[in-house]
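re: the backbone from monday

yeah here it is again, tokenized this time
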């Protein structure tokens, strides 16, 4: 199939059905239904109903069908026997959905692809209360459980596939506010659940393959604000134009523990994989001026056996992995703050992996850590999000004004290299360093255990004695002995006018 049935896809689909039902809500059931239709049309959906009927304080809409064609994806069709809008008499409306409804996924028209699947959405104790005004509606929702079950999966030839899956969301709560904004519509959304669980199972006899997947996520949470502009701008592939029109996004996501188990076979060879995480976080913020993106995971563990691997078992773990970047995106002449972070802390490997390249245990098998934490100031000479801008070539359209090495660390096999420092840059002096702005400031590099590591690498045949001799001669020229055993220190100082000193000796 040209698309994947995932927990994220199913959840997004469910929430779109619930959300659009309450978005742009007015004070009467009829206006609420009209707003749902308007919102669906603005999102590129086709929403129709067989009929409507007023029954006292309740508007009943029957025979609902909602179609959505995802670009480069499937055609999504949700059908519901009826949805009711009940006036609660206090300016709010209760929206009641069926306990179960179907969502059909099928390949985009004209492709000749017969792949399809049906999702059965079940809701236990789902409650949606809409309030506010027609221009700035708010709705709150909750459910004991929401389940999405996949069935009737077919391949491109229309042949039924032995594939099933189910997503269960427990303890679901959230809120949603929509309001007009300059050039579009603003949204304020929150979502949380006690847990999410995804299972998927399937097999293919000719290829002798099978899979049985189980994924659990504790306490998923999401909160964010956004401003959406005209769909034509969002689909044009020009983020710069969308941002100029008012598009913005500011959202955060987190989870508790995550556990993934995969059992299966490939070409008749069985295998087992287990992955665990203690928690995850993510944040993204984007507007016409800046971008801020960060992700992090903690307490990772993995163990895998089988699947024709060259060793009986692979095990590994890590304490933390994080990545982040914050920087300006707009064209400017004045400097703005930026930062960049990459962190991998306490990575460990199983003895089987170590023994593949170091059977004699010549290397110290300490945890591996790599940290790169930088910040500074700079300015772009172009709009980097404009697709017409080419970010290639030797001369990047950026001016660097300052750079701080908050933490630079590489630690492995008993050795460690660390660096700290702060630099400023003279963008008027491009001659001293071959077209790069001349720096001014000091960087201190400390190396521990390097000589012992080189001896160990020679012992296991990774490098030759001649290579090590050349490396040691180079280190002797650039570094001096430190206060600790097998420690080297290099103090690199850049002075005004383009002078360069290493450990007090002028090199340029």
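seq for it, each position gets an aa:
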């Amino acid at each position: 199939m040209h698309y994947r049935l995932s927990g994220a896809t199913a959840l997004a689909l469910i929430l779109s059905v619930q959300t659009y039902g309450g978005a742009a809500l007015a004070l009467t059931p009829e206006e609420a239904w009209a707003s749902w239709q308007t919102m669906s049309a603005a999102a590129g959906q086709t929403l129709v109903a067989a009929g409507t009927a007023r029954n006292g304080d309740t508007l009943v809409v029957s025979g609902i069908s909602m179609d959505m064609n995802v670009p480069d994806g499937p055609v999504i069709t949700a059908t519901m026997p009826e949805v009711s809008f009940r006036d609660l008499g206090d300016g709010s409306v209760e929206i009641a959905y069926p306990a179960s409804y179907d969502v059909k996924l099928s390949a985009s028209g004209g492709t000749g692809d017969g792949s399809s699947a049906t999702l059965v959405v079940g809701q236990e104790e789902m409650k949606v209360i809409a309030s506010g005004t027609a221009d700035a509606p708010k709705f709150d929702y909750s459910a004991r459980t929401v389940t999405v079950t996949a069935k009737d999966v077919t391949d491109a030839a229309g042949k039924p596939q032995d594939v099933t899956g189910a997503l269960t969301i427990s303890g679901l709560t959230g809120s949603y506010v929509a309001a007009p904004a300059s050039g579009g519509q603003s949204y304020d959304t929150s979502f949380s659940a006690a847990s999410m669980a995804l299972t998927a199972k399937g097999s293919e006899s000719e290829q002798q393959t099978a899979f049985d997947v189980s994924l659990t996520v504790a306490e998923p949470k999401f909160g964010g604000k956004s401003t959406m502009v005209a769909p034509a701008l969002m689909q044009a592939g020009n983020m710069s134009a969308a941002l100029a029109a008012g598009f913005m996004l500011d959202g955060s996501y987190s989870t508790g523990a995550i556990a993934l188990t995969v059992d299966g076979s490939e070409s008749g060879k069985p295998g087992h994989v287990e992955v665990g995480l203690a928690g995850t976080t993510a944040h993204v913020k984007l507007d016409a001026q800046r971008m801020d993106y960060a992700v992090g995971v903690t307490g990772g563990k993995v163990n895998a056996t089988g699947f024709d691997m060259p060793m009986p078992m692979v095990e590994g773990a890590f304490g933390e992995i994080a990545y982040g970047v914050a920087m300006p995106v707009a064209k400017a002449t004045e400097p703005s703050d930026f930062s960049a972070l990459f962190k991998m802390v306490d990575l460990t490997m199983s003895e089987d992996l170590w023994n593949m390249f170091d059977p004699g245990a010549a290397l110290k098998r300490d945890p591996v850590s790599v940290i790169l934490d930088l910040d500074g100031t700079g300015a772009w000479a172009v709009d980097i999000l404009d697709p017409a801008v080419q970010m290639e070539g030797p001369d990047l359209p950026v001016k660097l004004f300052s750079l701080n090495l908050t933490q630079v660390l590489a630690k492995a096999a008993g050795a460690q290299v660390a660096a700290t420092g702060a630099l400023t840059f003279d963008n008027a002096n491009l001659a001293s360093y071959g077209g790069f702005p001349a720096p001014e400031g000091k960087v201190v590099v400390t190396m521990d255990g390097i000589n012992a590591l080189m001896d160990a690498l020679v012992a296991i045949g990774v490098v030759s004695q001649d290579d090590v001799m050349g490396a040691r001669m180079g280190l002797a020229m650039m570094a001096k002995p430190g206060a600790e055993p097998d420690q080297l220190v290099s103090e690199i100082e850049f002075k005004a006018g383009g002078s360069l000193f290493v450990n007090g000796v002028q090199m340029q």
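Helices lie at 7-22, 29-42, 231-235, 239-244, 351-357, 450-459, 465-478. The longest helix spans residues 7-22.
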